[in-house]
Amino acid sequence: MISPEFHRSRRELYREILQDNSMGFVFAGELKEDRGDQMFPFTPYANFYYLTGFEQPKAVFMAVKEEGKYREVLFIDHPDEKKQRWEGISYTKESVSAETGIEQVEYLEKFMESIPLFGRKNLIEHLYIDIAKWENNFTQNPAQEFAARVQSNYPYIRIHNTFWQLSLMRQVKTKEEIALHRKACQITSAGVLHMLKNLKPGMYEYQAEAYFDFVLKDNNAGHAFPTIAASGPNACVLHYVANDRQMADGDMILFDLGAEWGHYASDVSRTYPVGGRFTKQQRELYEVVLKGLEAAIARTRPGQPKDELQEISKGVMAEELIKLGMIQEKEEIAQYYYHGSGHYIGLYTHDVGDEHAVLEEDMMFTLEPGLYFPELGIGIRIEDTLLVTRDGCQVLSGDIPKTVEEIEAFMAG
Fold this sequence. Notes:
The protein has 12 helices and 17 strands. By secondary structure, the chain is of the alpha+beta class. The strands form 5 sheets. The protein has a 6-stranded mixed β-sheet with strand order 4-3-2-1-5-6, with helices on both faces. The radius of gyration is 24 Å and the shape is elongated. The relative contact order is 0.11.
């Protein structure tokens, strides 16, 4: 879905990270067992996919910069007869080279002998490895194990983690990446509209979710993350995923969902009245959150510090709650608002990047202010996926009803 030229351009940027007399490695990751003889569907480690476009497990990308010369090698697992017969997995070194644009492709049997540490002329002084910041110390992944072995046997080699540099690289999107995000948002919008057309009292949360799932499957798209369909008091649980409550007239339901297309995510939250109309209290509180979102969107443009958008939403919502008499001081909003107001989006739904960065054109992220009132059984979150443009931003999820008037008119129709 994305061209070999894209991945080649990313490898050119990666090449600039490496010092002379160094080697860099990025690991694809391993299959994980689900139950019995089943395995979880494999998704390659995002930075590995970003650099190579290869999607099979166990693979390793190696880059070597030695005496001013640079070379790349992709090591791949040898597809055996069983995989070909049972899973339809069949490829060769030549086909993978053509697919990825990486000239030298070898099977993993040659991995150890190809590492430029052996022999009398060992010039390697630096090892660049990619280890995500959330990896813990209790179980080591292949990248960590490899770095530990190098450090143990060659203590003079300096080890560097490229995770942060690649995170900053992924922060600004290319036109190809933006096109994939647009498609993901279009499918998400279609799914939400289909769900909203069929939403009614008496349904279970999972039944509403099923209408969204149908549209994703109908478009051969994946889920960016497990869907949250949280009605009534469940909407006050931020990561509620049971989705098994029966909804009644007068309830609201909070959806947090998104399609994934070509590995790129969308992320949208909406809160709707199950019966098609807001109560007076629901409307008042909903419009508080909507004003917070709209204020932050209005300030989204190149040159704007990203982390200030959170405070813009929070400040507007606090002022509106004071007007409603629900709080007396702005700081009291912490009782009802206790999560961040958005995140980068990309190969991960909660993507990597510098949260303190100044916005640039072609950055993509979400804004998602929310207010939660457990005592009222009301939780409201409204979230859009945004693209920073030359002089402002574009709301890629803007086709989904968001104002009270839009929502009630759509549900009435």
